Amino acid sequence: MKIARLIYDAKEELKEVSDTPYLEAELLLAFLLHKSKEYVIANLDNALSPELSEKFFSLVELRKERYPLNYITGEKEFMGLKFFVNPSVLIPRPETEILVEKALEISHGSPVKIIDIGTGSGCILLSFLHYNSLAQGVGIDISEKAIEVARKNAEALGLSERSVFFVSDFRYFDSGERFDMVLSNPPYVRTDELKNVPFEPTLALNGGQSGYELYPELIEKAYGLLKDNGTAIVEIDYRFQKEIKELFLKNKYREISFIKDLSNRVRFVKGVK
Fold first, then answer.
1. pLDDT tens digits for the chain (273 residues)?
2. 78 pairs with which residues across the strands?
3. Which residues is 115 bridged to in the sheet?
4. Predicted TM-score of the model (pTM)
5. If exposure means fewest CB atoms within 10 Å of the residue's CB, which of 25, 80, 125, 241 is most exposed?
6. Which domains does the chain have, with CATH numbers?
């Protein structure tokens, strides 16, 4: 069967689960063939063997079950970089790029040392290091499998020499050093909402019954990890902004401000020690 027909049939199958079914069909086929999307587009008149066609539609069926495309292909773009992802880590969201952009703006390309709490795939820390070539960083995560992914991404991006990763509960982490910046996208999904994200790791999502569970200890810990005049930027649920501002005030941060996401909702809070 010709590639053009395969793509068309897959697009029709994927309509119920995707807003971009044609694009997803192209990406699935490119993944199967170990080629680029551009290769697929340029070879629409070529035919695929029955065996490859069958494998392609098995991927389509998996996607129809709402299994994330990025877990099928094993990669996700973030800040213009390709990251390896698997079900051990969250799929990076475009909104989180704002956190990295703000951190880069604050650092002004200076040789800062940062720590990323709950690093997952390493996308926050490694993107920051990629675009600030003088910076160094530490990533910690309670999940050993997530740290394996982060280290793999650091190696792929050529950033292993400027990054180090530890399996650690942030509450007990202390390397003895203090940082210019603390960045974090912690779990803040309410337990009863986890059913809405069935395939991503619960450990990286579950913020307890309220979704707010980790913030008091996280914000206090971040303050202790910062150098004087260091900056913490934390991703939050907009529903918690009042409570989280109070936590920042309680922990004696100054210059506290909120940062909005692409939907004009409060998504991050920033404070200075």
1. 899 999 999 999 999 999 999 999 999 999 999 999 999 999 999 999 999 999 999 999 999 999 999 999 999 999 999 999 999 999 999 999 999 999 999 999 999 999 999 999 999 999 999 999 999 999 999 999 999 999 999 999 999 999 999 999 999 999 999 999 999 999 888 888 888 888 988 888 878 888 889 999 999 999 999 999 999 999 999 888 999 999 999 999 999 999 999 889 999 999 999
2. 81
3. 138, 182
4. 0.92
5. 80
6. 3-67 (1.10.8.10), 75-272 (3.40.50.150)
